[in-house]
Amino acid sequence: MDLLFLKSTKTIKFQAFIISAALLFIVNLFFMEDVIKEIAVFLVIGTLILYLMDLMKFKQINPVSMVMNVAILNAIVLLIILVSQHLVQFRSSNFFNVIVNFLYVLIVAGSMSYLYIIFKELYFLRQKKDMSTYFNTMVIFFLLTALSTLLPKSLDFIEQTFFIVSIIIMIFNSVKISWIAFVVKKEKIYLLILSIIIIVLMISIANSLKEIEGYSEALSKFVLLLMIYGGIYNSILFFTALFHLPTADAFDRKNQEISSLQYFSTLITQVLDFSDLTDSVTDIALKICDANAAWIILREEEGYKSIALKNIGYFDSNLLNHYLVTEKNIFDVNSIKVFTLEKFQDKGQLSEKYHTIAAAPLKVYNESKGFLIAVKKENMLFDEEDRNALNTFSDYASVAFDNSRLVKESIEKERMEKELDLARDIQMRIIPTKLPEFRNLEISSLFIPAFEVGGDYYDFFEIDENKLGFVIADVSGKGISAAFIMAELKGIFESLSKTISTPKDILITANSILKRTLNRNTFVSAAFGVLELKTGKLNIVRAGHCPILLIRDDKIKNIKPTGIGLGLTFEGNFSDNLEEKVIFLQQNDMIVLYTDGITEAKNKELEDFGQESFEAVLLNHREKEVDEISKNVIHEVTMFSQHNLQHDDITLVILKWKQKLNIDGDREWQSLVQQLNNQTK
Amino acid sequence: MAEFSAATKQSDEVSIIYLKGFLDAHTAPQLEAEFTNLIEKNKYYIVVNFKDLIYISSAGLGVFMAYIEKVRENNGDIKLVEMSEKVFNIFDLLGFPLLYEIYKSQDEAINKYNETKKIN
């Protein structure tokens, strides 16, 4: 047969088989020469083998079931041969007989072809080297032996030679059974019995080949050779299985460990998705102990819940969970436990007749975080092997869960750090990088962000040539949300300071905007001031912020007009309670704006730096340049809280009024001082 | 940070939440849970006792803002009592005395509730 045919499609092979079968039928019908009949039989077997090989190519190969097939096939063939001994009359030309003969030959040829294919598959199974040369040599000698039957009787010695060589090659080939080591102990015992049955069957078939021989010598030779090969193969199989039995247990254990390791490696790659992970855990649990259903009980802060249910509904699993937790107290056990459900009272409510339940703890740091549960139906038990497998596997699963948690935490941590970076970035863009400059006003500003962005904000607005607006604010809350509110604040104050000139109206409008946009539990404390640069008249309002400090000579005055924090109350209530203070600045007066990051800076004993220390530092250094004063304050605060993490942003803005000493200004100033004095009285 | 605890006691129809320790962004959820619990049970006469509270941050103050509307809609109130001077100063700076009734003693707050009930 040429290669083209070997490679052709299944249908073509099938057609070839049909044609050769038809040919055989015609030959039978017209009672032709023996030689032609033999060739027709060969064609049928040849095409059938090729067709069947294609047909079975994609099947999963399990050696034990294949040996089983051999046994069944042999039994059928023997049965047919025995029954047909009285039915088939090959020399009859009766049409009915011809059909029966034909079908008989076809069945025998078909079974033999199938048998041949199974032997071939078994031969190549688990072979490490390419053994096809040996097998092909054997097949060629099979063919030669069969074909040599066609030679005249005087040349019988040729046939016999081929026959003997075939048998030698058969023995040589049968010794190489390598798959036997890989089947489990149960299957090895099974194989022992099967191989004996097959040997008996094959001997019986070989002994009742007379009928077939009468029809076709070549076919009977082929059957005989296959039977001999099968006999030899199965004898060797028998002994190999027998010799492997003592070590079967150890081999099984090793095998199981290896497959557990494989499962484990599938688990550790699934750390990114917790539900995927739990799904594969229950999936594998089902497989390793042949359970009918599996799921995971996950402990929660209050109680527990079922996840990753396999072959079971929530209702059933909840009933069983309740039983395990309340009556069997599984949360107190530390290793796998198996319970029967015989005494389970709500058994009737289950939709399936579950009989035994196994619970293996999922431990993280020796604390059971949950349980891997597997149940079996009636008549099935968790044997020692199942328990061990489940226990080992639950350990693997625990490790996988822990990994998954760690990965999640590190992702979360990274996400939070990214978020904080972003928040800091926003904050640094919002606060002014350049301070306005005036001849009669020294300004110093200092800002130290906390690790978690604290929501401090300050800004200056040059309303017109004569008016400087400034704001200091502290958003409640931290991180990215605080940073976004700061951005909103900057927008609000930037635009309001262009259209509204009194600080009170600015804060009233800001409050009504923020009351609409802020969460109910978020608010902003702020102080807003407008300073007239020609006169030193300062209008200031405070909405829940720290007092504004006025340092005049060697005294500090807390300026604390009434005012509710922004976003805390509605418009009417806010504006009714917002008091605006007017201060007329004098030579070297200082206005100090700050956030509670300074006064609430904490030392190791969690004591506050406090208002008094703050004021003391300010007074001690009041004669110095504003930047120097700032530095000294921060130095003191840092020294005080050096052993404690900075929890909140620190903001310090100092304005120092340097009276313009021209005559106009002086006169104006004198009159304003008069006013101020009148006010304070 | 140091610890915090919040516990609720019932005195007739008035629920008193006792606070202890440091109330900040990390411990605020505990107090939120107490408020949520009371509101679920339709208990709107609430007194918060600050006697053992050492520190309150802006996140802690936010908790009171989150529930006051809901409570007042149901004719109840959150009254704050027995604050230390330091804690009071924090509330005072933000203008809370204008938004909440703050009393020196717990009994004063409870009496206040009883009076309003009589009127109703």
Task: Name the largest protein-protein interface in this structure.
Answer: A-B, 25 and 16 residues
Gross geometry of chain A = rod-shaped
Number of strands of chain A: 15
Q: How far from one another are the termini of chain A?
A: 126 Å
Biggest sheet, spatial arrangement of strands of chain A: 2-1-5-4-3
Helicity range of chain B: 40-55%
Residue fraction in strands of chain B: 25-35%
Low-confidence stretches of chain A: none
Quick one: biggest sheet of chain B? 5 strands, mixed
N-end to C-end Cα span of chain B: 44 Å
Number of helices of chain B: 4
- What would the average pLDDT of chain A be, to the nearest integer? 84
Overall shape of chain B:
globular
Q: How many strands, what sense, and barrel or not for the largest sheet of chain A?
A: 5 strands, antiparallel
Helix vs. strand class of chain B: alpha/beta
Total number of strands of chain B: 5
What does this entry look like structurally?
The complex is a heterodimer of chains A (681) and B (120). Helix content of chain A is 57%, strand content 16%. Chain A has 681 residues and is of the alpha+beta class. In chain A, strand 7 and strand 8 form a beta hairpin. In chain A, helix 10 crosses helix 11 and helix 11 packs antiparallel against helix 13. The longest helix of chain A has 52 residues. Chain A is rod-shaped, with a radius of gyration of 48 Å. Chain B is of the alpha/beta class and 120 residues long. Chain B has a 5-stranded mixed sheet, sandwiched between helices. In chain B, helix 1 packs parallel to helix 2. The N and C termini of chain B lie far apart (44 Å). The model of chain B has no long low-confidence stretch (mean pLDDT 89). Chains A and B meet through loops of A and helix 2 of B.
Feature tags:
heterodimer; A: 681 residues; alpha+beta; 5-stranded antiparallel sheet; 15 strands; rod-shaped; B: 120 residues; alpha/beta; globular
